[in-house]
Design goal:
By secondary structure, the protein is α+β, with helices and mostly antiparallel strands. The chain has one domain: Roll (CBS-domain). Helices cover about 35% and strands about 25% of the residues. The chain is built from 5 helices and 6 strands, in the order E-H-E-E-H-H-E-H-E-E-H. The protein has helices at about 20-30, 50-55, 75, 90-100, 120-135; strands at about 15, 35-40, 40-50, 80, 105-110, 115-120. The strands form 2 sheets. A 4-stranded mixed sheet has the order 1-2-3-4. Strands 5-6 form a two-stranded antiparallel sheet. The radius of gyration is 16 Å and the shape is elongated. It holds the Pfam family CBS. InterPro entries: CBS_dom, CBS_dom_sf, Diverse_CBS-Domain. Keywords: CBS domain. This is Membrane protein.
Length: about 140
């Protein structure tokens, strides 16, 4: 089974220099857990509702003071260099990478363009459908 059959084509993005507060607002309004972080046309990271509080605890300025909430940018808290897949790649490979990396979302690119996203929820859906079809 190819990734193109399970990916969500309605991928949501945010600029790397956007404020984290905007990322949180976007995720809450759209009822999603991940945003693909872009620098122009390039995918540079993923920011998630789970990663924000984890990474926030480690965020200090050069004097070891915590940054002001209003100053924190997406690039400060994102997970950089996400694992990227192509739509023709096998779902099994993505599943194994999800297990190995513990990442919750994977951007899907085709010819240098972001065309979708696969999340752990999408992978659970595939697994559930496979189990239900056996019954």
């Amino acid at each position: 089974m190819n990734i193109s059959t399970i990916m969500n084509k309605n991928v949501q993005t945010i600029a790397s220099d956007a404020l984290v507060s905007q990322a949180m607002k976007d995720m809450n309004q759209k009822e999603i857990r991940h945003l693909v972080v872009m620098d122009g046309e390039s995918v540079v990271g993923i920011i998630s509702n789970r990663g924000i509080p984890i990474n926030l605890a480690n965020l200090t300025d050069e004097d070891d003071n915590f940054k002001m909430w209003s100053e924190i940018k997406v690039k400060d808290l994102m997970t950089p260099n996400p694992v990227i897949f192509n739509p023709g790649d096998e779902v099994v490979k993505l599943m194994q990478d999800a297990i190995d990396t513990k990442f919750g979302a994977f951007p899907i690119m085709d010819k240098g363009r972001l065309i979708g996203i696969v999340t752990v929820i999408d992978l659970l859906r595939v697994g559930l459908e496979a189990l239900q079809s056996k019954n």
